[in-house]
Amino acid sequence: MSDIECPHCKQVFEMDAAGYASIVGQVRSAEFEAELNTRLEEAKRTHELAIELAESNMSKKKDEEYANKEKQIQRLKGELEKKDMERQMAVNEATTPLQTQISNLQNKVNNADTEKALMEKTLVEKHQMELTTRDKIIQMKEEEIELRKEMKMKLSTKMLGETLEQHCELEFNKLRPTAFPTAYFEKDNDASGGTKGDYIFKEADQNDVEFISIMFEMKNEGETTKSKKKNEDFLEKLDKDRKAKGCEYAVLVSMLEPDNELYNGIADMSHKYEKMYVVRPQFFIPIITLLRNAALKSIEIRNELAVIRSQNVDVENFEADLKEFQEKFNRNYDLATRQFMKAIERIDKSIDELQKTKEQLLKSGNNYRLANDKAQDITIKKLTRNNPTMQAKFEAANDDSED
Options 3.10.350, 3.30.70, 3.40.1350, 3.40.710; which CATH number does 157-311 get? Predict the structure, then answer.
């Protein structure tokens, strides 16, 4: 942004490169030229009209003065010279301001032309300077990009990896005296298990009890490397190295997959491998700090729990005795409950059998009742209704019994 002062009103305002470009376009445009010429013509016409008006006023005033003079000739002959002098003075007074105004207008027109040319020249020079500066910046950036590409082409994949390792080691050593004075951070040189990581971080408390350990792997890749690797290609090996060296956490510090937004911060890969993270180099120190602080907080909680347990041994023993009593009572209760349920089952079965026997007896009694009803309903007439022989014998028997 630059401060610009208006040549007319002297007001100062800010203008950026886009504003300059816009003004240059306006200054150079034919419309601006036409508008400027139109305004000059209008100023010229205004100037001519002002002259004509002044001349007309002056002529009218002269006529009036002459008329008055003619009227006053007879009465004021003695004052003729004096009046002539007054008339001349009046003419001079009327003409001088008009000439001054005309001169001022002409000066303004000339100044406008000069300011226009000066502003156009200044804006053109400013624009050219900005273009030159921008071209130089672009050229410098292109040269820097080419230089970096050339440097990366000269580096092998191993050299790139070692460069990243050196960067991480340097960043850690900068903070070691203040943030990690008692921590262990060294290269993993033990390949007895057939493989090894890059660095191991460990730290112990004041009682020399280790409370955190991290296995680090650093991976970088040159832009010209043909076989592009992915971060997940190294997680399985890193997980094995972590377990082989007895580390709690595993962190892959990676420059791979630069366009993958998943790895732009701290990527938690615990859903694939336990306590596994992938970070960019700028998050190397933050991931150590986060894991270390979480471990310290865990130590504080464990220590507090240990103090509470040591202060409540009797309570724990009582809880153990109560738990043992509850377990024994629960076993006896289960046995009694099973025996009770078996007895209930037997009773239910007996009730079912008795119910069935009751139903059978009720059915048998009903049959006896029906049989008795049928027996009570039997008569001699019903038995001998269709048997004349038996009817005759029963009638004869009845007669004998009457005799």
Answer: 3.40.1350
